């Protein structure tokens, strides 16, 4: 989209109070659902026209699923809501004095504002990493990685030099959180079961997977038992797990690690962390720790009628000095609580503070294996893997998506195959995303 | 893919004769299948890693199907073939003296060469049309059109001026062949059944579909009865069908037609024709009518051991003075005949000339309606539509694709919905394809 002068972000005025929600992620859509029968006018803004089910993004990147099955068109999700308006618009800033949100297609007044625009890949300011590595936050990024990976194997077939073959088939994954671990597992499975059928000319012993994490264990947010199990599972896939290690430099050809290792690699997947998507115009006092500071009612510090929730919200309390983990359940629970509070406030009732109920966390590592942490119980293996599948299938939006994903999983499981190995997007090295997009 | 110096197109030498096949379209893959148990070494080259089932491309463009279901990964199709090599390579030319094919990743020697690289969109040399209109030949093009179309509706919601709204919601389709007619029907169905649910803010009476053809009737390759029926079906969808009309100019904003009509439109779909994908290095005498001239054994005029088949091949005989129609059945039948001839020749047997068996043609126009021409019988309506679906489903490669397409069709039919309305590709106006790519 090039020029927007002719566009105007206008929503019909009504006698109801207008709540503007920025972001159609887990928090944003939960808030719309919670407010469905409320007495507000709801406006949802997102720069995409779809909600992304991020926990399965790594399966799009590794050719297990097509993007349509992990996304839900936002208009479709709320087609039956009354007094609901979706607008595709990229928010650029806020003017809290005038109670106005600024977007690329014009301004919009709010009575109440909820900032739920989540987090973006954190490159810690390193432009080289931003330019040369693959992030894993959005569907287009996952599709880029998939096409790049398949192109690398096509080039490996055409390559004669051993070092070049190594470079094309090596994968370095930076970050041992759930994304890094799940990508490594999925790549391990591709290497073991899928790719050798496609590329009989390639000796897949040369394909090496390296998982690098700065901390002392994988899945730092989970139990030590699960961390150890995940490491074991990955090593079964021949993944080279390097803890207490950082990436020193990467020039697009060779990765240099803090332990001095040099790995020739055309593919570096950057899953080292995320940081809040902070818009312009917020007062300084509202920002802290890379997030927007909120109280236990999700009210933004220093502003009136403005709320933040999910990854972007830093609710720094005695129990959560670093804020809550940046995961979907926090966003969903905050959205439910905030939605109810907004309806309570409208009726003059008192507000309830947010209390996070940690229902557990999980990660899968290839076929038949996962780790699950419940509050009082940790387990792994086949049963954990089945729990992982069931929970994800039930969490995804839309009956159609559930069916398509289940069908794909059954197919992939039974055939040791992947249905979606098309190189559709031409990979662009030194990508040129808009500033502030993901850097 | 930027630099290819390090890549080499090398295939292990064997004592068998090497057949190099350029293009994994309908003809190319049929030839590989026919030669499966032959005594040749087979090398298949394509610039994509997948075969495209082009007859359903319009459903990808109009959000009815995802690309994976109409494509087949070429490596996967022939995973069990022996002495078969696929290489992803863009062919640039031929040196018939040295019996060498030139590609972006190096040269390759052939004993026998089969040119089956099909046709490309014919802009009749008009750069403006090439830059500003949407072709419908390849999967990335169909995805571009889909994202563009959905972006237009998002912008319509944000637009205040009536002329701008018209421009965003008008579609001009140039060319009344099967592609143009089927796209028009699919858009008509979107307008009538699908889009109004998504965009309650838009009055869809403003969305106008215009189908322009230079000739006196639609579907010129079919019977007059079917042409008339197709026009009737389209008019039921309020499609403005303009025959004996050409596009005079298009500046990206307004279409001007030969009858003087000016249509404000941001979307012009170019389905006005195709022309052979002729590579460099062929002698002048081998080329005629935009195709490579072949005899009835598909041997290229003026060359030794070089064959051409399908869209690219002009078999100009007394019965077919303009060559055969550029459709899949011709390519498939020529490939079968050529494959058998190559095996016969190897055994010293005599060759059989190609005879086209026209089994009929068909086109679908939205829900429940199609036209079918069999050699001695023409029919339309619901039964034709069911025949159309059955034939297409049975023709597509791969059991998985068949299942996925059937499931999507049933879903779309029952719910009046489309599952895949994601704006994933940012539309680039004034596209900059490589020279010779599609112009």
TrEMBL record, chains A, B:
Catalytic reaction(s) noted: a quinone + NADH + H(+) = a quinol + NAD(+)
Domain FAD/NAD(P)-binding: 18-335
Enzyme class: oxidoreductase
Keyword line: FAD, Flavoprotein, Membrane, NAD, Oxidoreductase, Transit peptide, Transmembrane, Transmembrane helix
Pfam family, one: Pyr_redox_2
External alternative NADH-ubiquinone oxidoreductase-like C-terminal domain segment(s): 359-414
Transmembrane segments annotated in the record for this chain: 377-399
Domain of life (superkingdom): Bacteria
Enzyme Commission numbers on file: 1.6.5.9
Family per record: Belongs to the NADH dehydrogenase family.
Name of the protein described by the UniProt record: NADH:ubiquinone reductase (non-electrogenic)
Species annotation: Roseivirga thermotolerans
Upper lineage: Bacteria, Pseudomonadati, Bacteroidota, Cytophagia, Cytophagales
Protein's gene: ndh
């Amino acid at each position: 989209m090039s020029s927007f002068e002719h566009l105007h972000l206008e929503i019909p005025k009504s006698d109801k109070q207008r709540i503007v929600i920025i972001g159609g992620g887990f928090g944003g859509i939960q808030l719309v659902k919670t407010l469905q029968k409320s007495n507000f006018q709801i406006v949802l803004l997102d720069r995409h026209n779809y909600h992304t089910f991020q926990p399965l993004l790594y399966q799009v990147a590794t050719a297990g699923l097509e993007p349509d099955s992990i996304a839900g068109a936002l208009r479709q999700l709320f087609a039956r809501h009354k007094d609901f308006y979706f607008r595709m618009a990229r928010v650029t800033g806020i003017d809290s004095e005038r109670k106005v949100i600024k977007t690329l297609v014009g301004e919009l007044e709010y009575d109440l504002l909820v900032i739920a625009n989540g987090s973006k890949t954190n490159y810690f300011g390193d432009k080289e990493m931003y330019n040369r590595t693959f992030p894993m936050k959005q569907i287009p990024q996952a599709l880029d990685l998939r096409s790049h990976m398949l192109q690398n194997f096509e080039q490996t077939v055409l390559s004669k030099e051993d070092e070049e073959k190594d470079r094309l088939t090596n994968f370095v994954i930076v970050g041992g959180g759930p994304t890094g671990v799940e990508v490594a597992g999925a790549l391990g499975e591709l290497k073991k079961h899928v790719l050798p059928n496609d590329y009989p000319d390639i000796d897949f012993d040369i394909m090496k997977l390296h998982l690098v994490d700065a901390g002392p264990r994988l899945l730092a947010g989970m139990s030590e038992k699960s961390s150890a199990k995940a490491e074991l599972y990955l090593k079964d896939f021949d993944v080279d797990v390097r803890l207490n290690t950082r990436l020193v430099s990467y020039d697009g050809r060779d990765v240099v690690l803090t332990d001095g290792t040099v790995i020739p690699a055309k593919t570096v997947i950057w899953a080292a962390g995320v940081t809040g998507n902070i818009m312009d115009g917020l007062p300084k006092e509202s920002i802290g720790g890379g997030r927007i500071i909120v109280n236990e009612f999700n009210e933004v510090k220093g502003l009136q009628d403005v709320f933040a929730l999910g990854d972007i919200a830093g609710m720094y309390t005695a129990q959560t000095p670093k804020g809550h983990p940046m995961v979907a359940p926090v966003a969903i629970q905050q959205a439910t609580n905030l939605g109810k509070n907004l309806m309570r406030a409208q009726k003059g009732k008192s507000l309830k503070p947010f209390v996070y109920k940690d229902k557990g966390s999980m990660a899968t590592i290839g076929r038949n294996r996962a780790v699950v942490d419940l509050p009082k119980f940790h387990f792994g293996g086949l049963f954990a893997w089945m729990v992982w599948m069931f929970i994800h299938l039930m969490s995804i939006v839309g009956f159609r998506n559930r069916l398509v994903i289940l069908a794909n999983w059954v197919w992939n499981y039974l055939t040791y195959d992947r249905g979606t190995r098309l190189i559709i997007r031409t990979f662009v090295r030194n990508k040129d995303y808009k500033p502030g997009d993901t850097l």
